[in-house]
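re: ur question from earlier - yeah i can do the single chain one, its not a big deal. heres the input i used so u can compare w yours
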Amino acid sequence: MDAADPGPADARPLGLYLHIPFCARKCAYCDFNTYAGMEPLFEPFVQALCQEIDLAAQAHGERPVDTVFIGGGTPTVLSPAQLRRILGRLRQAFHLSPEVEITVEANPGSGDRERFAALAEEGVNRVSIGSQSFQDEELRFLGRIHGAAEPALAVEAARAAGIARLNLDLIFGLPGQPLQAWEQSLEAALALAPEHLSLYSLIVEAGTPLAAWVAEGRVAAPDPDLAADHYALAQERLAAAGYLQYEISNWAKAPAAGRPLGDWETPPQASRHNLRYWRNQDYLGLGPGAHGALHQPAGPGRAHRLRRSWNLRPVPDYLRRLAEGRLSEEDGEWVEGGSAMAETLMLGLRLLREGLAWADFQALHGVDARTVYAAPLAELTSWGLIEDGGPRLRLSARAVPVANQVFSRFLP
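and the output i got, formated as tokens:
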């Protein structure tokens, strides 16, 4: 495996993403590497994933792990015993930091009290619940397995298990979705007082049932103007409820007391694992189709470069590879030069409060971003789309709805 090798004494923290590719039913809009009806493969998969954890630790186990994210799919379709085995193997194989954030995704209807209790006992301290909507009609359209009342039951079960940090996912911009219905979902989510909210605009992904419905004229394509209205409403309502938008699609509850949060500071309830992505830091991807990213920092006579890799997607192929005692990486690529620098800058600008730290860019790439991107930075500043806060750069509020156009100015 052609992996990034920054040296034998690498003590930089590492994140772990574990992909559980199973669902009770696949949603109409989902293009993730997920499968329904594979219950007989649950146990062989857990065995293979535990073996992959061991193999990955042989290569990277000296690095401290400060974030773990178990996603899918629906991780909580696995039994409590299977979830315990995965989490137990992680602790045996890797050096988890005392303050490690361990997040598990769950869907209402699959994360019952027994599962949440098992997760909490194994150190899980954050759960992300795929609510998506609090409207039964919308949930049926999306193909969800739960009704509008069940997210509240999932939140209650997670709280009862002692899980202190909860995220709720919501989707907006559905075809013909009334603004009032979206507002009702927002209010229902806020009534549950989650520490974090992630809001995503519906995207028609190729190869999904939703894409076929749109192509056949059975369903109207999502209206970007309506989605923009939904997004603006969410920004207004969540700010009024005491949530801080720290990333384009993510909000965290503001601290209730103590030291005031600085204007450029990310709130402590932010997803620490997802911050790793936006800060362009290292993580391993384990499980079918999982992606990983490892940096080789700039050094004497060596330019910075990033190794991205991805695992085999089909579950049977993944199982066969692990049965051979090999990691399941399918392929990878090196990202270098202008492409690597642009990626760091664009990811950092997604963080609406902290933005990109010039010093972090310099440490990673060995050059000053203000020199490399002098022309687009001057242009975007003159248009009022970016804000230079001395040591940091971030998008202005007016730039958020057109962020992709801003990002395009930095592409090589």
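Residues 128 and 167 are 4 Å apart (CA to CA). not sure if urs matches, ping me
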